[in-house]
């Protein structure tokens, strides 16, 4: 639940999601659920030359099980919040 809570705080921010098939999509995080399924809006493909068929996609739903990485905006990482949440989860509460 730690990551789910953290991603909920990033709704409305721009993120880059790299999939297991090497496709990287950048867009505005619209929503995320407990399975870390992600919905992006205003999307664009990072490598447009390699994936030209994706140029017409503006919104997408990404199943959590196909996500390799989520790159967060540099100012979107609240280290103290993560430390506190990690400590709470480690204690079981």
Can you describe what's shown?
- The protein is of the alpha+beta class and 93 residues long.
- 23% of the residues lie in helices and 33% in strands.
- It contains 2 helices and 5 strands, in the order αβββββα.
- The chain has helices spanning 2-9, 79-91, and strands spanning 14-19, 24-32, 38-45, 60-62, 67-71.
- It has a 5-stranded antiparallel beta sheet.
- The termini are close together.
- 10% of the residues are buried.
- The model has no long low-confidence stretch (mean pLDDT 87).
- This is Sm-like protein LSM2.
- Keywords: mRNA processing, mRNA splicing, Nucleus, Ribonucleoprotein, RNA-binding, Spliceosome.
- Residues 2-76 form the Sm domain.
- One of its GO terms (molecular function) is RNA binding.
- It is found in: Nucleus.
Q: How is this structure best summarized?
A:
By secondary structure, the chain is α+β, with helices and mostly antiparallel strands. The chain has helices at 2-9, 79-91, and strands at residues 14-19, 24-32, 38-45, 60-62, 67-71.
Topology:
Elements: H1 2-9, E1 14-19, E2 24-32, E3 38-45, E4 60-62, E5 67-71, H2 79-91
Antiparallel strand pairs: 1-2, 1-5, 2-3, 3-4
Give the distance, in angstroms, between the N- and C-terminal Cα atoms. 12 Å
How confident overall, as mean pLDDT? 87
The poorly predicted ranges are: none
Helix content: 10-25%
| Count of strand segments | 5
Report the major sheet. Answer: 5 strands, antiparallel
Structural class: alpha+beta
Portion in strands: 25-35%
Radius of gyration: 14 Å
**Individual helix count:** 2
Q: Quick one: overall form? A: elongated
Query: Helix and strand string, N-terminal first?
Result: HEEEEEH
Largest beta sheet: strand ordering: 4-3-2-1-5
Quaternary state of this entry equals single chain
């Amino acid at each position: 639940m730690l990551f789910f809570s953290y991603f909920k705080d990033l709704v409305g921010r721009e993120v880059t999601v790299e999939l297991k098939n090497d496709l990287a999509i950048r867009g505005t995080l619209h929503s995320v659920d407990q399975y870390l399924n992600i919905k992006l809006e205003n999307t664009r493909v990072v490598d447009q030359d390699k994936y030209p068929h994706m140029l017409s996609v503006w919104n997408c739903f990404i199943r959590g099980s196909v996500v390799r990485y989520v790159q967060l905006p540099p100012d979107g990482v609240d280290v103290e919040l993560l430390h506190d949440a990690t400590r709470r989860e480690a204690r079981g509460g």
